[in-house]
């Protein structure tokens, strides 16, 4: 334990953070842990041995800089859950949605060990901040008589839309999944077909756990949203009116780590030497590079991967292409070799096979566009860095994020995908976006004509607002302080 933590131990508010073990949920929670700790709160962060190993440098950094964050690794009973030994993260599920319910239920077993740990802790817990997918944390909060605040990791836009969807059961009787359905009570007209809604992430077997999640969330005292008021106050206000709960906009939380090398690997260890990556980017012209990455869990089928490679090559734009599937799908590796692809593009393209230091790449001045699957973290990281986006949503909240980026904020363009894929059951012979269409969209995004320049300016201005929100006196900075104050007053 460090001196800072010892200083006013008994009075120090103690936040217990419980993420969903998936990069898109854990990364912003790690940022939140640092934000809270840097504002003087004590943080217990629940993790697992494998996930802790992935973020070794972050844990080390917290220790060295005497930040009061305790990382608490719990193991699971895999056999009981029917999952392979060592399945500790969503990105390890081989069958995606089919195994999702089992994975979520396996996490419930953390309840008793966490309660025992907190009972023994010298500083009583003051607040549980829990991923909304972890309903068991409600019992932990009740055990200690403390508030439970939810975290979902989505935009306020998508969070509001989801709450309305649940409240009005708007897709219950919809038979045509492509038919646009109005979202009643949304602050502006919005129609979403079932295939583009969050319901697209539902799967048989998830009903029971979904019920538990909804029930527990109706009891939670509010939510943390990784956004900022200058961008999403309309949806934050509507959410608060609809649910009568506080929505704390405290983002973009990724800005906490700006400039901190250790925080770049807060999701996983990068598969490329960061120095090499920076050197490559330094050698490119400002705003010229297209960055292509589909997040941590989306599975792009080999035929589509090849089509992406050929179109980005045909665009003749410099690019960084992150290939997640290369190790899992030998046909991609074989294709790269047969085509001599890497050699062919070597003066213009950098291929990263595995985990890329995404935040670092997006913050480099050479990057001028981001082809993204529209995971909320990817979008908010792009926004912080003023990078316009080409949006290619896959499932879940991603189509809603696409609407926010392309139609509302006008800092991106849509690649044109009209329906979701089923995570884990992707059709191997399906090419959703053809080579020429993608090439056209890449050129449109990177274009330096009037429209392209206006989009760039809007993206840059939004990035400036994001940074201002996180600075002392900014809206998100104030909200973090207020959150800590409210929790502290309650526990006193
Ligand atoms: N990420 C990364 N390198 C990768 C892939 C993803 O650093 O190669 C990070 C990315 O910066 C973001 C998170 O992982 O913080 C992905 O979250 P997002 O919500 O964008 O998508 P998800 O993976 O949940 O679909």
Quickly describe the structure:
The protein is α/β, with parallel strands linked by helices and 492 residues long.
Can you say what the CATH homologous superfamily of the largest domain is? Glycogen Phosphorylase B
Using the 3D structure, state the CATH architecture of the largest domain: 3-Layer(aba) Sandwich
Rounded to the nearest angstrom, the distance between the terminal CA atoms is 23 Å
Q: Determine the strand fraction and express it as a percent band.
A: 5-15%
Small molecules bound in the structure, each named once: uridine-5'-diphosphate
Number of domains: 2
**Helicity range:** 40-55%
Low-confidence stretches: 1-9
Protein name: Glycosyltransferase
EC number: 2.4.1.-
GO molecular function: UDP-glucosyltransferase activity
Keywords: Glycosyltransferase, Transferase
Describe the structure.
With 492 residues, the protein is of the alpha/beta class. The chain has two domains: 3-257 and 470-491, 3-Layer(aba) Sandwich (Rossmann fold), CATH 3.40.50.2000; 269-466, Glycogen Phosphorylase B (Rossmann fold). It has 21 helices and 13 strands. The chain has helices at residues 3-7, 23-38, 49-54, 56-64, 78-81, 97-107, 111-120, 137-144, 156-168, 207-219, 229-243, 274-282, 302-314, 330-339, 341-344, 358-362, 376-384, 398-408, 435-446, 450-470, 475-491; strands spanning 14-18, 42-47, 69-73, 127-131, 148-151, 222-225, 246-249, 289-293, 319-323, 349-353, 367-372, 389-391, 412-414. It has a seven-stranded parallel sheet, with helices on both faces. Helix 7 (111-120) packs parallel to helix 8, helix 9 runs parallel beside helix 11 (229-243) and helix 13 (302-314) packs across helix 19. Uridine-5'-diphosphate (UDP) binds at residues 23-24, 27, 267, 293, 295-298, 322, 355-356, 358-359, 375-378, 381.
């Amino acid at each position: 334990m460090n001196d800072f933590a010892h200083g006013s131990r008994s009075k120090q508010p103690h936040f217990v953070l419980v993420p969903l073990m998936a990069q898109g949920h854990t990364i912003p929670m790690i940022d939140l842990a640092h934000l809270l700790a840097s504002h003087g709160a004590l943080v217990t962060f629940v993790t697992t041995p494998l996930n802790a190993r992935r973020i070794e440098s972050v844990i080390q950094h917290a220790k060295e800089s005497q930040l009061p964050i305790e990382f608490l690794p719990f193991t699971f009973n895999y056999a009981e859950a029917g999952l392979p030994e060592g399945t500790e993260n969503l990105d390890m599920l081989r069958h995606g949605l089919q195994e999702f319910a089992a994975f979520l239920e396996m996490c419930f077993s953390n309840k008793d060990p966490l309660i025992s740990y907190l009972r023994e802790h010298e500083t009583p817990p003051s607040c549980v901040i829990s991923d909304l997918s972890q309903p068991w944390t409600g019992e932990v909060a009740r055990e200690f008589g403390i508030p439970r605040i939810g975290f979902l990791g989505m935009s306020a836009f998508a969070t509001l839309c989801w709450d309305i969807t649940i409240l009005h059961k708007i897709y219950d009787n919809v038979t045509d999944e492509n038919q646009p359905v109005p979202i009643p009570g949304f602050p502006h007209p919005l129609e979403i077909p079932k295939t583009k809604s969050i319901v697209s992430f539902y799967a048989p077997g998830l009903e029971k756990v979904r019920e538990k999640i909804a029930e527990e969330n109706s009891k939670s005292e509010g939510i943390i949203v990784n956004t900022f008021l200058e961008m999403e106050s309309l949806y934050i206000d509507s959410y608060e009116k609809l649910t009568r709960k506080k929505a704390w906009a405290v983002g973009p939380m990724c800005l906490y780590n700006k400039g901190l090398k250790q925080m770049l690997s807060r999701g996983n260890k990068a598969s490329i030497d960061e120095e090499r990556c920076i050197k490559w980017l330094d050698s490119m012209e400002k705003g010229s590079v297209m960055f292509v990455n589909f997040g941590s869990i989306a599975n792009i089928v080999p035929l589509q991967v090849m089509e992406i490679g050929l179109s980005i090559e045909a665009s003749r734009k410099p690019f960084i292409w992150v290939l997640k599937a290369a190790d899992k799908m030998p046909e991609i590796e074989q294709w790269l070799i047969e085509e001599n692809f890497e050699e062919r593009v070597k003066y213009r393209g950098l291929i990263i096979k595995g985990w890329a230091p995404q935040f670092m790449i997006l913050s480099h001045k050479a990057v001028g566009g981001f082809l993204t699957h529209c995971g909320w973290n990817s979008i908010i990281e792009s926004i912080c860095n003023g990078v316009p986006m080409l949006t290619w949503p896959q499932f879940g909240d991603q189509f809603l994020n696409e609407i926010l980026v392309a139609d509302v904020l006008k800092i991106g363009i849509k690649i044109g995908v009209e329906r979701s894929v089923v995570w884990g059951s992707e059709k191997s012979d399906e090419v959703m976006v053809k080579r020429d269409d993608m090439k056209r969209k890449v050129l449109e995004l990177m274009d330096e004509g009037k429209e392209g320049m206006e989009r760039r300016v809007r993206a840059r201005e939004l990035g400036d607002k994001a940074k201002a929100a996180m600075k002392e006196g900014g809206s998100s900075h104030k909200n973090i302080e207020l959150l800590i104050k409210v929790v502290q007053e309650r526990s006193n």
